[in-house]
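Quick log. Single chain, no ligands specified.
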Amino acid sequence: MTRPAIDVVIPVAGDAATVAGVVSRARGLTLAEGDTVTVVDNRGTGVAETEVLVADGVHTSYFARNAGARRGSAPWLLFLDADVFAPPHLLDRLFADDPADRTAVLAGAVVDEPAGAAAPVAARYAELNDSMSQEVTLGHGRWAFAQTANCAVRRDAFEAIGGFREDVRSGGDADLCWRLVAAGWQIERRTGAAVVHRNRATVGALLRQRFRHGAGAGWLAREHPGAMPARRWPGLAWWSVRRAAAGVAALARGDRDGAICGLLDGPAVWAFELGRLAPNRPLRR
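-> predicted structure:
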C-alpha cells in the first residue's frame, strides 16, 4: 500500500529500564521509507539509543510530545503512550483508507489489556469498564476527542495551532482536538488500527490516575466552557451508596466482577470529581 510518511512519538516518564523497554517495543513497528520513531525521555534517565530524545525541561507528556514532533518532518505524526502495545503493522492500518482532506486526527482504537476473571482488582475493573476505549471519548458529541494513547495528527494542522499545551498534566489531547475542530478540521475513527493498553495494577494507582484525569477535566471545563460538566455532589453521594450496596450484594452471592464494579465505581468517580479541585500544573525541574 501507499501511505504518507509518519513520525512516531512516544513520551515516557520512568526509569532507565522503562525507557529501554519502550524503545524495544517501538522497534517492533514496521516502518516504511520516511518513517521515524522518537521515544522522548521526559526524566533524563541517560539511555543512549538513537531513538531516544531527552526533553525533561517540563515534566509533562505534552512537553515531551511537542519536543518529539519537532524532531521530525513527516506529514503525519503518530502519538502513542508508553504503556501501550502496538502491532507491527499499526502504521499501515491507520492509513488503510485515505483520510479526508479536512481530517486532522485519526483516532486509532485502544483496547484495555485482557486481564481475565482472576486478575488483580484494578486491572479487572479497567477491563470491565473499557476504561481506555476511544469510543468513550469519541462519544461525547460536540466535545468528542481522540486520546493520544493511539492518535495520528496531520503535521500542518498540528503546527498551525501551536501543538499541545505544554503547561498541563492532563487533558491536553482533548484540548488539541477541540482547537483543531474549531479551526475547521475533523476527526476520523480507525477502529482497525488497535493497540492494547496496560492498565494500572493497584487500586491506589487507579485512583491516583482518576484524580489526575479529574484535574484535567476541571482545567478543560474552565478553558472550554460547556465541556466536562461536574457532577452534583448530593446526587453523586446517593449514587455511590447504591453502587456500594450493589457491590456488597454481588460479593455475598459470589459474583466477583459485580463486586469489583459496585465497590470501585464510587471511589473512582469521587477521585475524578475531587481531582477537579486540584491544579493541573506540571512539575518543573
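The CA atoms of residues 106 and 152 lie 5 Å apart.
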